[in-house]
Amino acid sequence: MGTVQLISISPTELANLINEGLKTHIEKLSSNLIKPHQEEKEFLTRKETAKFLQISLVCLHDWVKKGIIIPYKLGNRTYFKHSQIVESLLNSNKVV
User: Fold this and answer.
1) Are 21 and 28 within 8 A, CB to CB?
2) Domain extents in the chain
3) Which residues contact 86 (CB under 8 A, 6 or more apart)?
4) Residue 74, SS3?
5) What would the pLDDT profile of 34-63 be if each residue is shown by its tens digit?
6) How far apart are CA 73 and CA 79, in angstroms?
7) What is the three-class DSSP state of 91?
8) Which of 24, 46, 47, 27 lies closest to 35, judged by CA?
9) Residue pLDDT, tens place only, 9-32
10) Helical segments of the chain, H only
11) Contact between 78 and 45 (Cβ < 8 Å)
12) What Cα–Cα distance (Å) separates residue 85 from each residue in 5, 9, 93?
């Protein structure tokens, strides 16, 4: 990083330098926050879903019966879509 002399700089130039520095720092932070979400598995098993939601398997089964969470079945296995679980959580406080 270069040396900045504040003696011969206008307030507008100082504000621009601060904005540029903050912009690059915020972009680095946001890219670090986005990466973990991209690495999430698309489909979760029953156990993984219960662990993610911090609920029991009995509660998960109850939520499926009530239509709160939509299961996907393949043979005798049940999966849940991660993005739909997050969407259900975000929409849970909305009044219908």
Assistant:
1) no
2) 1-39, 43-91
3) none
4) strand
5) 555 545 678 999 999 999 999 999 999 999
6) 6
7) helix
8) 27
9) 788 988 888 888 888 888 777 666
10) 11-38, 46-53, 57-66, 82-91
11) yes
12) 52, 52, 14
CA distances from 69 to 2, 18, 24, 48, 60 (A): 54, 46, 39, 14, 8
Which long-range CB contacts under 8 A does 61-67 form with residues at least 24 apart?
Answer: none
Q: What is the dihedral of CA 33, 90, 93, 67, to 10 degrees?
A: -150
Longest dimension (CA), the chain: 73
pTM: 0.55
Q: What is the dihedral of CA 24, 27, 33, 35, to 10 degrees?
A: -110
